[in-house]
Amino acid sequence: MSELERTLLRRLRDRDERAFRELVEAHRDRVFNITYRMLGNRAEAEDVAQEVFIAVFKTIDTFREESKFSTWLYRVTVNHCKNRIKYLARRHDRDRDELDEMSPGANAATNGAPARAPQPDRALEGAQMEQLLQDAIANLDDDHRVVVVLRDVEDLSIEEICEITGLPDGTVKSRLHRARLALRKKLQRHVEEPRPARTPKGAPTGSERSKEDR
Amino acid sequence: MTTAEETPVDDEIISTLSDYLDGALAADRRADVEHKLATDSEWKRAHTELRETRDALSGLQKARAPDSFTQDVTATIHKRSAGRFFARRTFGDRVPFSALLVVAVLALVVIGYVMWSSQTGSLKVDPRARPAPTGSAVAPKP
């Protein structure tokens, strides 16, 4: 840890507002990028990123300087993202249950995601590829999503990811392999065949839901 | 992105190639993989796809926080803490809960002791316990 960082931390512990602003300025984009890639939604990402910095500020006294500050910051970020993912999943399930109760069979295509028209052009580039990748990442479970975002999007080392997640080296690597494999399969499927509509992970398609409703 | 109509690639190959792309393989193992890549079409295809996936991920645009982000976080802290976190107060930045706890415990101990040693069992003084001055109690005059 550099002397500059130590000084900043000391000022933070003294509740120096200017130090807090400096800290946020230095890390905001990276934290926001992680939250955005983890959550796939700008508003949620911004909210969680804010909560991360507030939590960091509130708990700065518990940071023991045994690891890099950024490692500790990313650990807080990842934990906040995982909590939000769980919260959103619970809310999504509850909303879906309520919708099911209100209008059984009528909401086959309204599972929180807009229906997407078939892609006539199979050359997925630029914004399309971006969206496709974001969707593919969002469909990974959170344990796999964390490692792939930290490694392949944020370009952190396996050692850093181990420190952030508290997982052993082997577990991080195996999750990374599985995540890449899953992403590869998802992207491959998109390239090979256009989908008529998008449904969230685990949600039955329109025809499946119709069968269930019968 | 490579289109693939071939059979799915073994997970074990993906795992090895994943390590290969991360530079996590020992030299002999790496040479072995490079040989496979040069001779085995299945390995080559999987490598291309995996590398493309990884490159696509690392090429994702870096999402930037809104311009007002720092101001928003600071304002939120001010709002939630009513200025307690940043502003200096008469008694310091934070309420000294630990010191208050020690004082409270000491006060309870003292009150408890007084009550325990009191004849009335409370903090009130028993007026009967105070001996009334009697004649015998008066010291005889010499």
Description:
The complex is a heterodimer of chains A (214) and B (142). Chain A has 214 residues and is mainly alpha-helical. Chain A folds into 2 domains: 1-90, RNA polymerase sigma factor, region 2, helix turn helix motif (Rna Polymerase Sigma Factor, Chain: A); 112-200, Arc Repressor Mutant, subunit A. Helices cover 70% and strands 0% of the residues of chain A. Chain A is built from 9 helices and no strands. Chain A has helices spanning 3-13, 17-39, 42-58, 69-102, 126-138, 142-153, 158-165, 169-192, 206-213. Mean pLDDT of chain A is 79; it is low at 104-120 and 195-214. Chain B has helices at residues 11-21, 27-39, 41-58, 69-81, 97-117. The radius of gyration of chain B is 41 Å and the shape is elongated. Chain B folds into 2 domains: 11-58, no CATH class; 68-125, no CATH class. Chain B starts with 10 loop residues before the first helix and ends in a 25-residue tail after the last helix. Helices cover 54% and strands 0% of the residues of chain B. The chains are: A mainly alpha (214), B mainly alpha (142). The interface between A and B is large, with 50 and 39 residues.
Q: Please state the CA-atom Rg of chain B, rounded to the nearest Å.
A: 41 Å
Structural class, from helix and strand content of chain B?
mainly alpha
The CATH topology of the largest domain in chain A corresponds to: Rna Polymerase Sigma Factor, Chain: A
Q: What characteristic shape of chain A results from the CA principal axes?
A: globular
* N→C terminal distance of chain A: 63 Å
Number of strands of chain A: 0
Helix content of chain A: over 70%
Kindly provide the radius of gyration of chain A, computed on alpha-carbon positions and rounded to a whole number of angstroms. Answer: 20 Å
> SSE order of chain A in H/E notation?
HHHHHHHHH
For the biggest sheet of chain A, the summary is: none
Q: How many separate domains make up the residues of chain B?
A: 2
Number of H- or I-type helical stretches of chain A? 9
Count of folded domains of chain A: 2
Total beta strand runs of chain B: 0
Structural class of chain A: mainly alpha
The termini of chain B sit apart by 122 Å
